[in-house]
Amino acid sequence: MSYDPNWPQNGEFVDGNRFREQFAGLHDLIPSNGGVSGAQVDSVSTLDPGQPASASATVVDQTLHFTFAIPRGDTGAQGPAFASAQVDGVTSLNPGDAAQASLTFDGSVLRFSFGIPRGFDGSPGANGIDGQPGVPGEVSQSTLNGAIAGTSANSNGVATLNLSVSDPPTQMELQAVSNKLDELILALRRL
């Protein structure tokens, strides 16, 4: 399609396909003798409803520059009222990321979603108060060995009995064995 300088008219629907046709038509008008080497759109502005659309083109340094002014459409009908709003999700972002927010409307509910950056890690705080002692743990073999080292010497103070027992033993012999046994038991007790 060729370039139409009268398009778009006031209140006319503007779509991408028609714009592409206009650009193709302008491209066909550009001389192929090397006078123009490129094209760019410098601005597209929105006009109040009822104002006429306009387009202009200039050549600067072998580049075709376009400027467009397009009227916006009439205000549409008021949409449905919303019944409620709810937050669908909050996501933690990395420190320094930009906060994010999105809003959708499903016909009755405004739905929000947020992305909020977490703060940077703070410096370590002071040491806290010591807690209560914990439950005793198991004793290691080395701790046990250290605790019983030298304890067999507890019985060193008990003299040997050196008793010859008769057959049958007498009351006095049995009493001597009993007394020596008590002496040994007392010596072996730990404090």
Topology:
Layout: H1 16-29, E1 38-47, E2 54-60, E3 63-71, E4 84-93, E5 100-105, E6 109-117, H2 141-148, H3 171-188
Parallel strand pairs: 1-3, 4-6
Antiparallel strand pairs: 2-3, 5-6
Could you explain how this protein is built, in words?
The mean pLDDT is 82. This protein has helices spanning 16-29, 141-148, 171-188; strands spanning 38-47, 54-60, 63-71, 84-93, 100-105, 109-117. The longest helix is centred in the C-terminal third of the chain and has 18 residues, at 171-188. The chain is rod-shaped, with a radius of gyration of 51 Å. Among the domains are: 16-71, no CATH class; 84-117, no CATH class. It is an alpha/beta fold. The chain is 21% helix and 27% strand.
Task: Give a quick rundown of the structure.
With 191 residues, the chain is α/β, with parallel strands linked by helices. The chain has helices at 16-29, 141-148, 171-188, and strands at residues 38-47, 54-60, 63-71, 84-93, 100-105, 109-117.
Which strands sit side by side, in order, in the main sheet? Answer: 1-3-2
Shape type: rod-shaped
How much helix is in the residues? 10-25%
Structural class: alpha/beta
The first-to-last residue Cα distance is 113 Å
Please report the number of helical segments. Answer: 3
Order of helices and strands: HEEEEEEHH
Parts with pLDDT < 50 across at least 5 consecutive residues:
none
Relative strand content? 25-35%
- Number of distinct beta strands: 6
What value does the average pLDDT take?
82
Main β-sheet description: 3 strands, mixed
Radius of gyration: 51 Å
